[in-house]
């Protein structure tokens, strides 16, 4: 099975990311789904799509539970079953694995997978509190810990052990904003300078405002089918050839090391083995840069560079749009935005565009193999997918 297609993406769609006032999550999801449907006109969504797997983190933003059938029906998927998957910021990355397994099992021929979050109708302190529910209640939340604080701990240990600098973390933000400025669906289509990042407001030392991802509204969708059916439905399709998922201890203080996300590293090894590829074979990657330090650690966990060399790796220019291994061509969570439930499949949307030569000004030349790296919480969940162009 190594290197063989597990399931095939025949279309992908994305809503505009940003502060989307006057709409509900269900409307954002319908917008993303419609975008996907327009790319594959041979598909009749209401008849052909047999199930929907939808990532969404929290009921608290809109005081609404039982969200999967709402989102699916507004997207025209009815009466097919719809299931919500919640795994914090890895919700739709995990939903994609459910979709892959549904296709591989033979139960369904075509499924829709996506994610959504409508976050900005709550004030920032409330959003911070809602996001913090993905950390441990008695040991982290109760003691006032938030995600900027958790990732700041990881950053300070990385700085202490490896000499990583604030400038190296800032370089991640500069790179990703440069890419995001080219993405019409990004939340913040604006370049930032190194000086702007370093002088931005302190959030939790050493992380500053421009080291942190955006509170964003948005939705993303991909449509999966059996590999043998893809040619009949679409001229632009991408095979999923590797998938991995793992977990680590939930609390940061229980982990062996704060300079690696073991769940992501384990998931990557599983995905690489399944896809029969190595890190050097990847042409383009979307990494979970919820904070700039997370991307630096991600380089190391995915094998793009040696442990401790992530800061130097971003300085080398390798992950730039024109570099040897472009990372976060979409702008990443940092610039594109981070509507947490939608992030996993939004990464897949960008890779779908890249591997079908539809990424416009962000296009990576001759991109054949892509990787998506999606984290949940402070790394209790790690999901990695590897895609190959047809």
Notes on the protein architecture:
There is one protein chain. The protein has 390 residues and is α/β, with parallel strands linked by helices. The protein has 2 domains: 7-122 and 216-238, Peroxisomal Thiolase, Chain A, domain 1; 145-214 and 241-389, Thiolase/Chalcone synthase (Peroxisomal Thiolase, Chain A, domain 1, 3-Layer(aba) Sandwich). It has 14 helices and 11 strands. It has a 9-stranded mixed sheet with strand order 3-2-4-7-1-8-11-10-9, sandwiched between helices. Helix 1 packs across helix 3 and helix 7 packs across helix 11 (292-301). The mean pLDDT is 97.
Task: Supply database-style keywords.
390 residues, alpha/beta, Peroxisomal Thiolase, Chain A, domain 1, 9-stranded mixed sheet, two-stranded antiparallel sheet
Q: How do the helices and strands line up, and which of them pair or pack?
A:
Blueprint lengths: L6 E8 L10 H14 L6 H4 L3 E4 L11 H8 L7 E4 L5 H15 L4 E8 L6 H9 L14 H16 L3 H15 L13 H6 L2 E3 L2 E2 L9 E8 L4 H4 L4 E10 L14 H14 L8 E3 L5 H10 L8 H6 L16 H4 L7 H13 L13 E8 L4 E9 L1
Parallel strand pairs: 2-3, 2-4, 9-10
Antiparallel strand pairs: 1-7, 1-8, 4-7, 5-6, 8-11, 10-11
Helix pairs in contact: 1-3, 7-11
- Summarize model confidence as the mean pLDDT: 97
Task: Count every helix, treating DSSP H or I runs of 4 or more residues as helices.
Answer: 14
Low-confidence stretches: none
Query: If you compute it from the alpha carbons, what radius of gyration comes out, rounded to the nearest whole angstrom?
Result: 19 Å
Biggest sheet overview: 9 strands, mixed
**What structural category do the secondary elements indicate?**
alpha/beta
Count of distinct structural domains: 2
CATH superfamily of the largest domain: Thiolase/Chalcone synthase
Strand arrangement, major sheet: 3-2-4-7-1-8-11-10-9
Overall spatial form: globular
Helicity range: 25-40%
Distance between the terminal alpha carbons, to the nearest Å? 17 Å
SSE order in H/E notation?
EHHEHEHEHHHHEEEHEHEHHHHEE
Query: What is the C-level CATH assignment of the largest domain?
Result: Alpha Beta
What would you say the CATH architecture of the largest domain is?
3-Layer(aba) Sandwich
Q: Please count the beta strands (DSSP E, at least 2 residues each).
A: 11
Percentage of residues in DSSP E strands: 15-25%
**CATH overall fold name of the largest domain:** Peroxisomal Thiolase, Chain A, domain 1
């Amino acid at each position: 099975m190594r290197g063989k297609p597990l399931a095939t993406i025949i279309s992908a769609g994305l809503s505009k990311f940003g502060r989307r006032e006057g709409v509900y999550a269900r409307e954002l999801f319908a917008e993303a789904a419609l975008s996907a449907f327009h790319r594959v006109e041979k598909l009749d969504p209401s008849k052909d799509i047999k199930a929907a797997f939808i990532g969404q983190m929290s009921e608290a933003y809109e005081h609404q539970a039982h969200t999967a059938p709402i989102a699916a029906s507004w997207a025209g998927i009815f009466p097919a079953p719809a299931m919500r998957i919640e795994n914090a910021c890895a919700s739709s990355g995990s939903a994609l694995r459910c979709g892959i397994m549904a296709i591989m099992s033979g139960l369904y021929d075509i499924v829709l997978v996506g994610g959504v979050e409508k976050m900005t109708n709550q004030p920032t302190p409330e959003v911070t509190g809602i996001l913090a529910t993905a950390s441990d209640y008695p040991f982290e939340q109760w003691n006032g810990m938030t995600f900027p604080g958790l990732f700041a701990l990881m950053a300070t240990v990385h700085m202490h052990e490896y000499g990583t600098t604030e400038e190296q973390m800032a370089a991640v933000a500069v790179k990703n904003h440069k890419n995001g400025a080219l993405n019409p669906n990004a939340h913040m289509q604006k370049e930032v300078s190194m000086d702007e990042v370093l002088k931005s407001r302190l959030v939790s030392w050493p992380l500053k405002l421009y080291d942190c991802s955006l509170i964003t509204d948005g939705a993303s969708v991909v449509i999966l089918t059996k590999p043998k059916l893809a040619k009949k439905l679409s001229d632009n399709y991408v095979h999923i050839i590797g998938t991995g998922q793992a977990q680590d201890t939930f609390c940061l203080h229980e982990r062996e090391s704060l300079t690696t996300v073991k769940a992501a590293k384990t998931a990557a090894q599983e995905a690489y083995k399944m896809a029969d590829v190595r890190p050097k074979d990847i042409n383009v990657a979307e990494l979970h840069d919820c904070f700039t330090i997370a991307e630096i650690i991600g380089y190391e966990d995915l094998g793009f560079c040696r442990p401790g060399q992530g800061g130097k790796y971003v300085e080398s220019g390798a992950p730039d749009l024109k570099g040897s291994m472009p990372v976060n061509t979409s702008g990443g969570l940092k610039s594109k935005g981070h509507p947490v439930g939608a992030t996993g499949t939004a990464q897949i949307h960008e890779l779908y565009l890249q591997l079908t030569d539809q990424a416009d000004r962000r296009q990576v030349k001759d991109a054949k193999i892509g990787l998506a790296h999606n984290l949940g919480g402070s790394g209790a969940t790690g999901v990695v997918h590897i895609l190959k162009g047809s």
